[in-house]
Amino acid sequence: MTLLEVNHLKKTYATRFSNQQVEALKDVNFTVEKGEFVSVMGESGSGKTTLLNILSTLDKASSGEVLLEGKNLADIKDSKVSDFRRKDLGFVFQDFNLLDNFSIKDNILLPLVLSNTPVKEMEARLLPIVEKLGIANLIGHYPYEVSGGQKQRAAVARALITQPKLILADEPTGALDSKASQSLLETFEDINEAGQTIMMVTHSTRAAAHSNRVLFIQDGIVFNEIYRGNQTVDQFMEKITQTLMVLVNRGEQHD
Amino acid sequence: MTKQLFAKLAIKNIRSNKQIYVPYILASIATVAMFYLMTSLVYNDFLMERSSLLPMMFMLGSVVIGVFSFIFIMYTNSFLIKRRKKEIGLYAILGMKKKHVAFVLLLESLITSLGSILIGIISGQIMGRFVFLALNYLLKFPVSMDYPFSFVVALITFAGFTVIFFVALLYNISQVTFSNPIELVKGKQSGEKEPKSSIILFLLSVIFLGSGYGISLSIEDPVSAILYFFIAVLLVIAGTYLLFISGSIFILKAMKKNKKIYYRPNAFISISGMLYRMKQNAAGLANICILATMIIVAVSTTAAIYVGTEGALESRFPYDHNATVFELKDAEKMSEFENLVRTETENAGLALTDYSSYRYETLSGNLESDTFVVPGSSSGNLVPGEMMLIPQEDIERMIGAPLQIEEGEVAVYHSKGPYSASTIELAGQVHPVHQFTDSSVKNKVEEQLKVIEGNNLVETIILVTPSVEGTDSIIADYVEENPELFVFGTRAIIGWNTTGTEDDKIANSHTMDKILNEEGFSTMLDSRDANRQEWYSANGGFLFIGVFLGLLFTFGAILITYFKQVSEGYDDRDKFQIMQKVGLDNQMIEKSTRSQIIWMFFLPLLIAVMHVAFAFPIIQKMLLFFSVTDTTLVVLCIAGVVLFFSLVYWIIYRITSRVYFSIIK
Q: What HEC string does B428-441 produce?
C-alpha cells in the first residue's frame, strides 16, 4: 500500500537581491510504501532539506503534488496544518529540539497535550514507548541533565507518541557520537519492524545503510535509488558508497 | 597599542549586540532619570514650602527607587550577559586571557554606564522641567513652580549609579572568570534549573506583610500614623518581594502537580514557561506591584485632599467667620461681643444669619483607664492628648435643650469611643460621670461635642462641666497638684454667618478683625472664604506632587513591562519555533500567552489593591492632617484611581505584548 506519493515536485526560490530564480527541486518523483524505512542522501545543496520541508508542510511546492494516503498536502487548510503536522507526522531533528523548560516526560507528551488528549491516555501511551526506547528511568529529568543520545531518544519518543503515519528524521545522528548513533539507528530499525514508516535524510552512509531503500538526490531530481534487499548493513553500506562515487563523478563531468 | 585594540573591540561589541544593548541602555537611562527626578524633589524649593513632611517622603521615595534601580539593572544586566556568554567564551577559546576579557568588559561597562548616567541626568532634568511646566499650565497655579538644576542631586545620582553599574560589572567578570570557555559557549543553552519553593521565605513574607498591615490597622491617631507609616511601607515592600518569589513558585508548582490543570495546551505552555524563569519573573511582578501601589496611594490621597478641600474648609471653619477670643469668660462680656459683631455686620450692609459661641479651657495629657493624667506627673505617653472643658450652659445654648449636670459631676466625651466608666479621676478628685436620662438629649450632646472635637489629630476628651466655676475648680485642682502646669485660660470659640458675596465676606472679615481687637477683645478671626483660596492653592500643590509621582511610577511600570516582554520574547522565540515544528499553531501561541496575561496583569494589580485596602486606615488617619474626614470621598478617589490605573496598565500591557509577539514570530 502506498503511503506517500511525490509527483513532479518542483520548488524555485527567488533570491532576495536579484530576480534570478534558484531551482532547489526540479522534478522529484518517488513513492514510499507503508512500513518502509527510506533514506534520502545527497550533497549539501542538492535539495534534501527543501524536500523535507515540503513533506513536513513547513514549505510549499511551486508545482507538483505530495499525496499522503492519497490526500494532497496542498489541500490542507492553513488552520489545519498544525493539526496535521501534530497528528500525522512525527519529527526527529539533528539538534533534538527539546525544550529546556519541560522535563523529558513533558517534552514527549507535548504533541498530545497540544491535541487535548486526556491525561490517562497520555500516560498509557507514554510508558510502553519510553520502555522500548530505554529512557523510562530518565523521564523525570530535564534535557540539560541527560546525554545527547538520550535526548535524541526522547525526541524519537515524542515523534512516536502521536502514532504518526510517517516519521521524518532530519540528520538524526548528526550530533551524536558513533556509539549513540549506532544505538539510535538500531532503534529506528526496531520501530520500523514494528510497522512504523520512516523517512530519513542523512549524510552518513552508515546511517543510510540501516534503511530498506536509499534515494539519491542531486541537482533537484531523484538521481538513483537502491534497495537493501537481504544485504547486511555492511554490504549495503558498500553499495551506497559506490553509488555515491558515481554521483560525485557525474557531478565532475558536468563541470 | 593593545589598549587601543581593546577599546575598539569594546565599541564593536556594543555595536554588534545592538539588538540587546539598545533596550539595556534605554532602560538604564530611564532608571537614572527616574532616580534623578525623585531625588531632586527632596531639594526642590516649591515642594519644601508645601510641607516639611514632603522632603522626608521623597527621601523614602528616593531610597525605594534606588533599590528598585539596583534590582532592575542587575536583572537586565544578567539577561544581557547570558546572551553574550557564547561570544565571550569564543574569545577565550581564540586565546584571549581572562584579564583581557575582563578589561574589555570594563571598557564596555564604562562606555554604557557613563553614557547612561549622563544622558539620564540630562533627560531627567529636561523631563522634570517639562512636567513642571505642563502641570503648572494645567493646574493654573497661582505661584510659579520652578525646577532648577541641582548639582548635589546630580552628584548623588552619579555616585549611586556608578556603584550599581560597578556591582553589575563585578557580576559579569565573575561569570567569565569562574567558568571555562566550553561552558560559556554552551552558556545560553544550559537551562536554568527549576527554582525550589521555600516555605521559610513564604512564612517570612507573611510575617512582614502581616506586621505591615498590623501597623496600619492598629494605629489610633494621625501623629503616630505618620511616625509608623514608613516602617509599614518598608515591611510591606519586603513582604511583597518575598511573597512573589516564594508564593508564585508555590502556586505554580501546585498547579503543575495537578495533572488535570497542567496537561491542557495553554496551561502546559504558560505554567512551565513561567516556572522556568520564575526568579526574574517574580522580581518583575513584585516591582510592578509595588509601583502600582505607590501610584494608587500617591494619586488617590492627593486627589482626595484636593477634592476634599471644600469639606475640609467646612470642618475646620464651620462658619463664615470663626473667632477664637482669648480671656473671654463672663456672660456679660460674651453678649457685649455678640452685640459688637451684630452692629458691625449691619454697618457693613450685611445681615447676621447664624451665631454660635462656647467657652472652653484645655489641658494636655492622656486618659489612663479612668484617670486623666497630665504629662510630667507620671508616665509620658508618646503623643499627648487634649482635654477640653466646656460649661453646660454653652452646650445648652447650642443644642437648645436643658442639661442637668449637678455640682461636682461631669459629662464625658472621648474621641476613641464611648467612655464607659461611671467616674473619672481628675487631679486626685473622683468625679461622678453624668448619665443622660433622655436619649435624644444624649444624642444631641454627643453630636455637638463631635463637631467641637472637629477631628482633632490627637486623643481628645471633652468634659461638660456644671458651670464656668466648675471648670475653674478642676483646673485649680490640677494646678495645686502641679504648680508648674501651664494653663491657657478660658477662651471662646465664636462663629457666625452673614449674607453677601464671597468678596463682601472677606472684606467684612478684615474690618471686623480690626474693630474687635481695637475694642479690647483679643481675637483671632478666620474667614472661610479668605482661607479657601489659600487652601486650594496648597492642596493643588499636593495634587501636583501626586500626579507627578504617579507619572514617574507609571513610567517605571512601563519600563519594567516593556523590558520583561522583550527579554522574554527573545527567551521564548526558540521555544515557540520548536513547538511550531511539532505542531503548535499561532492561535495557540496567542492563547497561551494570553493566559500569562492573567499573571502579568491581574496578579500585581490584585495584590496592589490588597495593599491599598489594608493601608486604608493609616492613610485615612494621615489625611486628617489635611482635614479630610469624608471616608466616602477617600474610597471614591481610591476606586477611581484604581480603575484609571488599571486602564493605563492594560494599554501598556497590550502595546508591549505586541512587541513580544513580533519577536517570537
A: CEEEEECCCCCHHH
Cell of B100: 583581557
Place of cell 586565546: B95
- Give how far A184 is from chain B: nearest CA, Å: 20
pLDDT at B454 over 80: no
CATH of the domain at A136: 3.40.50.300
Contacts of B579 in chain A (CB under 8 A): 99, 110, 114
The answer to whether the beta carbons of residues B547 and B637 sit under 8 Å apart is: no
| Residue of chain B whose alpha carbon sits nearest to that of A101 | B276
Reduced to 3 states, what is the DSSP secondary structure of residue A4? strand
- pLDDT per residue as tens digits for the range A56-101: 888 888 899 999 888 898 888 877 888 888 888 898 988 888 888 8
Total number of domains constituting chain A: 1
What is the spatial distance between Cα A167 and Cα A89, in angstroms, rounded to a whole number?
Answer: 6
pLDDT band at B568 (very low <50, low <70, confident <90, very high): confident
d(CA B393, CA B521): 22
Residue B52 has what pLDDT? Answer: 66
Whether this prediction's pTM lies above 0.80 is answered by: no
Nearest to B659 by CA among B229, B38, B22: B22
> Which residue in A91, A101, A109 is closest to B273 by CB distance?
A101
Query: Which residue is associated with the grid cell 505607590?
Result: B294
Nearest alpha-carbon partner for B14 in B120, B100, B79, B111:
B111
Domain holding A104, by residue range, is 2-252
Nine cell digits for residue B254: 501546585
Residues forming a β-bridge with A12: A23
Q: What is the DSSP letter of A34?
A: T
The answer to whether residues B657 and B597 touch, using CB atoms and an 8 Å cutoff, is yes
A-B CB pairs within 8 A amount to 76
Strand partners, A226: A214
Q: Are B35 and B62 in contact (CB under 8 A)?
A: yes
Q: Which residues of A touch B272 (CB under 8 A)?
A: 99, 101-102, 106
How many CA atoms within 13 Å lie on the side-chain side of B147? Answer: 21
Cβ neighbours of A109 in B, within 8 Å: 263
Angle, in degrees to the nearest 10, between helices B603-623 and B222-242: 170
For chain A, the C-alpha Rg in angstroms (whole number) is 19
Does residue A44 sit at the B interface (CB-CB below 8 Å)? Answer: no
Determine the 3-state secondary structure of B234 from DSSP.
Answer: helix
Chain B residue closest in CA terms to A162: B582
Q: Where are the domains of chain B?
A: 1-190, 199-317+528-665, 352-498
What are the C-alpha distances in Å from A111 to residues A78, A117, B501, B582, B590? 18, 9, 79, 7, 17
Nearest CB neighbour to B191, from listed A85, A115, A142: A142
Q: Which residues are B321's β-sheet partners?
A: B496, B527
B583 with A109: Cβ contact below 8 A: no
Cβ atoms of B498 and B321 within 8 Å: the answer is yes
Contact B137, B53 (CB under 8 A): no
Identify whether the C-beta of residue B622 lies closer than 8 Å to the C-beta of residue B636. no
B580–A116 C-beta distance less than 8 A:
no
